[in-house]
Design a protein that fits this description.
Elements: H1 2-8, H2 22-39, E1 40-45, E2 49-54, H3 58-74, E3 79-85, E4 88-94, H4 100-111
Antiparallel strand pairs: 1-2, 2-4, 3-4
Helix pairs in contact: 2-3
Length: 112
């Protein structure tokens, strides 16, 4: 999705790379694991996206927005969105075609 939008807007697509150093990456992975364990009630993944259904709490929503924003900052090829409906909150992460292996690696780190 990102690559197609960039092409329509005349921009080069974001490189498929993370800017975090090894120590910061390890800390971020730990933070994602804690978030999934404490704030996510369901996780559904496809080849290029993951849907994290959040627990119905403001703490979960704030954590999702914070993590999503910081993930987008270090991995600009990720598309991040928060869906808000009464009693239903979802954090979406998606990657462009060709970056599915990066998303799969990200998901494997969450369950390791």
């Amino acid at each position: 999705m990102t690559g197609a939008m960039d092409a329509r807007l005349g921009r080069d697509p974001a490189p498929i790379a993370c800017s975090l150093e090894a120590d910061a990456l390890s800390q971020r992975v730990d933070e994602w694991r804690r978030f999934v364990a404490t704030s996510v009630s369901a996780l559904e993944a496809s080849a290029t996206s993951v849907r994290l259904t959040l627990e119905d709490s403001d703490v979960a929503l704030v954590a999702a927005a914070s993590l999503g924003e910081r993930e987008k900052a270090c991995c600009p090829f990720f598309d991040v969105a928060v869906e808000l409906e009464p009693g239903h909150r979802v954090l979406w992460l998606s990657v462009p075609d060709g970056a599915g292996d990066v998303l799969a690696e990200f998901l494997s780190l969450l369950s390791s």
